[in-house]
From TrEMBL:
This is D-alanine--D-alanine ligase. GO terms for biological process: cell wall organization; peptidoglycan biosynthetic process; regulation of cell shape. It comes from Pseudofrankia asymbiotica. It is found in: Cytoplasm. The keyword Disulfide bond does not apply.
């Protein structure tokens, strides 16, 4: 590894405090299985639902879960740690209720310690790069990115601003519109507000009601009659007090992956994929994403070459328009007329080996292990701790 006399130590951070905890755990299993241990020293760090950080065994089978039980980082399942910034980088420092901050045992990080070219700093386990495989609030919204920036640690993915902007669907649409990119009609409802008669007439039926800052289709409802609107708003506000009401767009649901290039320059795009849904909810909801056998994912999408090229161009422009870094998945609608309208930009998309983002890149010639390797290398080259 260029610039390193030993293997860089990468912390894979997963779980988290959001409703997408289980999805993050499944994504992390794929990443843990794919990281090349000959090139990197791996430290799995699970974030329990209560916010506790835990160093876990270097085993793709973690965290706990199985059968009908969703995977979860369970409090007390590993050594509790905090991230401690220092003048020469950042370290994971263990927490002990009696002794306070003590060194993380080398055994807690698998083969950590022996090949780092010297002992870790007293009281901590030094890190070189972080892969935050976190979805939703407290992971994909700029919060952990800010923590890592303050710690001076390189990390995979977009920075504070792009992460926060992409997570908030209102501000994402405002920024994309300002960049001259197409988004669908929508209205924003803050706490206590409901949809005006003017907006009902403008948006028409059906509409989709969703939390402004959420993911994995949690809290989203399709509304086909206005008498059902208040219930849908209440469901969305169970995840976020700010709610978006979006006009339905007739068209095909298409996704496209975007990656930074190792040598810099314009981002690279994957072949597009299509989501074909047969769902009782009438859209690509949580069940259709994770539990239905009636959802078909076509990789690559069967699109005319000029339409596929337009999707890829819009995806790259959205990536640049939000100032993303590393990776993103851009979700669009392709209308019967061939127009491409942006739905969402995800700065840390689902990352299981069967998720659409890695599947699109595999179909584009970059398999899952090579994709993980590229993202870590991009983070190391970019560095951490300030504007780049």
């Amino acid at each position: 590894m260029a610039g390193f006399a030993r293997r860089p130590r990468v912390a894979i951070v997963f779980g988290g405090r959001s409703a997408e905890h289980a999805v993050s755990c499944v994504s992390a299993r794929g990443v843990l299985a794919a990281v090349d241990r000959d090139r990197y020293e791996v430290v799995p760090v699970g974030v329990a639902p209560d916010g506790q950080w835990l160093v876990l065994p270097d085993d793709p089978a973690v965290p706990a879960g199985g059968g009908h039980e969703p995977p979860e980082v369970r409090p007390g399942a590993g050594q509790g740690v905090v991230l401690a910034p220092g003048p020469n980088g950042a370290a994971l420092v263990a927490l002990d209720p009696v002794a306070g901050a003590v060194a993380v045992p080398a055994s807690a990080a698998g083969n950590a310690g022996g090949e780092r070219g010297g002992p870790d700093r007293p009281g901590g386990l030094d890190l070189d790069v972080v892969f935050p495989v976190l979805h939703g609030p407290y992971g994909e919204d700029g919060t952990i990115q800010g923590l890592l920036e303050m710690a001076g640690l390189p990390y995979v993915g977009s920075g504070v601003f792009a992460s926060a902007a992409a997570m908030d669907k209102q501000h994402m649409k405002v920024l994309l519109s300002a960049a001259g990119l197409p988004v669908g009609p929508y209205a924003v409802l803050r706490a206590g507000e409901t949809l005006s008669e003017t907006d009902r007439a403008r948006l028409g039926l059906p509409v989709f009601v969703k939390p402004a800052r959420g993911g994995s289709s949690i809290g989203i409802s399709r509304v086909d009659a206005w008498e059902d609107l208040d219930t849908a708003i209440k469901v969305a506000r169970g995840s976020d007090p700010k709610v978006l009401v979006e006009a339905a767009i007739a068209g095909r649901e298409i996704e496209c992956g975007v990656l930074d290039r190792l040598g810099g320059g314009e981002p690279e795009t994957s072949v597009p994929a299509e989501i074909v849904v047969d769902s009782s909810a009438g859209f690509y909801d949580f069940e259709a994403k994770y539990a239905s056998s009636n959802t078909r994912l076509d990789v690559p999408a069967d699109l005319p070459s000029e339409t596929a090229a337009r999707v890829r161009a819009v995806a790259a422009a959205a990536f640049r328009g939000l100032d993303c870094a590393g990776l993103a998945r851009v979700d669009v609608f392709v209308t019967p007329a061939g127009d491409v309208i942006i739905n969402e930009v995800n700065t840390m998309p689902g990352f299981t080996p069967t998720s659409l983002f890695p599947r699109m890149w595999a179909a584009s010639g970059l398999d899952y292990p090579a994709l993980v390797e590229r993202l870590i290398e991009l983070a190391l080259r970019r560095g951490g701790g300030g504007p780049r």
